[in-house]
Amino acid sequence: MATVNGEPASVAQLTALALTNYGHFTTMRVEDGAVPGLSLHLDRLVRDCADVFGAELDTERVRGWVREEVGGRAGATTVRVTVFDPALDIARPGEGADPHVLVTTRPAGVLPAPPLRVAALRYVRDAAEVKHTALFGQLRMRREARRGGYDDVLFTGPDGLVSEGCTWNVGFVDRDGRVVWPEADVLPGVTMRLLRAADPGSTVRAVHVDELPSLRAAFATSAGIGVRALEAVDGVRFAADDPVIGALQEAYAVLPAERL
């Protein structure tokens, strides 16, 4: 089931989104009617709506539409909230905007997910601070990595600095057991922000791809995967069972959740 502004989505609305692919979204894990970092997800939607459309977004209506879509389902559900304008004119996209809210759901995966092997490829997302719907470049890089025998892709900039994964943030564990988040133009992921707030001892600094062999562990984070170990980046192998990653997974599991 997909709804737009609380009503069943029409073919015309979904066609408009498919043909323009202009919008933004957030993805959250809903479990028994509650979401870790719900306020951060809603803040992201408000911020990106102002950036992408120059419009305000009523978060109470968004919460209501998500609540109606999820209903009384037990267990975990992955909910994506996409904001788009079905009347957007490609030739004149700056002439006003009437953002609509598309809510879609899918079953949530079991956590923690198994470790990933990723390829480091050079790529910088357009408007990295916005969680926008233009996924072509990211998915092309993911496809290239998977065709090379890897599970996913890790992006690096032209300067060799590590930034983020295809649809996730990345973190590392240094030799002293401290969590290191790369300093780069990345999407400020909700899960990453929650984990950073829970671990004041973590640090944010530039991480060059050549430095990876000196780090002892690596992991991916997102609302969909929680904390997922990386067992290799290219030929550099990491300890997927590092105790710091286990501690992060435990910390994620007990994060307070907000009711829809």
The gross shape turns out to be globular
Mean pLDDT: 96
Largest sheet: 9 strands, mixed
Number of strands: 16
Tell me the β content: 25-35%
Total helical elements: 6
Termini separation comes to 19 Å
Instruction: Extract low-pLDDT stretches.
Output: none
Q: H/E order of the elements?
A: EEHEEHHEEEHEEEEHEEEEHE
Helical content (DSSP H or I, runs of 4+): 25-40%
Which structural class should the secondary elements be placed in? alpha+beta
Structure notes:
The chain is of the alpha+beta class. Helices cover 27% and strands 31% of the residues. It has six helices and 16 strands. Strands 7, 8, 9, 10, 11, 12, 13, 14 and 15 form a nine-stranded mixed beta sheet that branches. The protein has a five-stranded antiparallel beta sheet with strand order 2-1-6-5-3, covered by helices on one side. Helix 5 links the parallel strand 11 (179-182) and strand 12. It is globular and about 50 Å long.
Q: Which terms summarize this structure?
A:
single chain; 260 residues; alpha+beta; nine-stranded mixed β-sheet; 27% helix
